[in-house]
Predict the structure.
Amino acid sequence: MTTVAAELNVRIDDQRHTLLPGQALTFGRDASCTVRLDATDLGISRTAGRVYHDGGWQVTNLSRKRTLHLVDAYGFATPLPVAAAGWPSSSRAVDHPHTTVLVAGQAWTYALVLTPAAAPEQPTVPAPVDPHSTRNQMAALTPRQRAVLVAMARGYLRPYPHYDPRPRTYNEVAERLGLTRTQVVRRVERVREQLVAAGVLGLEGEGDARRPLCEWLLAMRVIGAADLDRPADPDPAHDGADAP
């Protein structure tokens, strides 16, 4: 049986907050937030997120544009996306002995450490609440697509504190896999087109969708740290027209 935490301790740098059920804490760059981050860093939303109790402690992303990143007790990080169609829930349970919320700004990445006073007896990696099956949104990735996407998302797959929520460039991926930039772009765009056609928001348009694509794949657990151990790319020399 899981132990229910009566209170939650929140730490960021030298700040300490203790929350009881019925209380909540907000964080962001606005003066109205309980925890005010750098007010001059425009990479942080005015109100980035909220920690509250609803049958258990929860953290939710309140930003309309910027992803939060949750690190579990084992150092594995998962993006916590904004609320949008086709994405997993923008809220997640705090069900580890401690959970670290990373807020990535332009100048600095801030870390809020959430520690329940009574930790769950058997912590498990929380699965996203997903009203849309990944299986229904896109076909399975081909080995070639997966190799490119994993190379692009390598920084996200490294355990904290080496976690780096920055997608690699097309040129970096091409150099790593021994491909051309055009081959890399084609594979990435093929996956993006499938998801846009399935109604996933935030990937449409002509702009650079590398970051939201990486974060969707990670939040939906389409790719994960285990993929780093897979072979880099199957026979890239015979890529031909780069069919997916």
Summary: Helices lie at 134-137, 143-152, 154-157, 170-177, 181-197, 210-219. The two ends are 46 Å apart (CA to CA).
